[in-house]
Amino acid sequence: MEPDNLEVNEQALGDGRLIDARGEIDHQSTPLVADALRRATVDAGGTVVLDLTDTTFIDSAGISTLLNGLRRLTRLRRKLIVVCPPGPARRVFETLGLVGTFEIVDNLGQAAI
User: Which of 18, 61, 83, 105 could be a cystine partner for 13, CB 3.0 to 4.6 Å?
Assistant: First the structure.
């Protein structure tokens, strides 16, 4: 069953990948993000930028997926940059103390790759 509360788009960005997630990242939709991160890790090189600008909600399943993606990329000596402006999704990272774990920027222009 495809979740209808999340849209994930992928495209090349320099020598890396841009993943744009719009909507809610929850236990039902997180496989879409996990698959995009997996493809970006295997099919591309360079930095992966995850744009959460239009993400309205993220739960623990979503955070777990992002941590797994970060772990895989770090093992390959690659970076994951999370674009997440102040708002509901950013508060989740702040509340969980993950602002230092992830490289989080406010907008896509700050994701210098």
Answer: 18
Q: Quick one: average pLDDT of 11-30?
A: 94
> Cβ neighbours of residue 94 under 8 Å, at least 6 residues apart?
none
Domain-wise residue ranges, the chain: 6-85+96-110
Please report, for residues 16, 28, 35, 65, 93, the alpha-carbon distance to residue 96 in angstroms, rounded to integers and kept in the order given.
28, 21, 24, 15, 5
Kindly report whether the global pTM for this prediction surpasses the value 0.90. Answer: yes
Annotate 24-89 with DSSP letters as a single string: EE-TTTHHHHHHHHHHHHHH--S-EEEE-TTEEEE-HHHHHHHHHHHHHHHHTT--EEEE--TTHH
Model pLDDT, residue 45:
87
**Residues 60, 64, 70: CA angle, nearest 5 degrees:** 145
pLDDT in tens, 24-36: 999 999 999 999 9
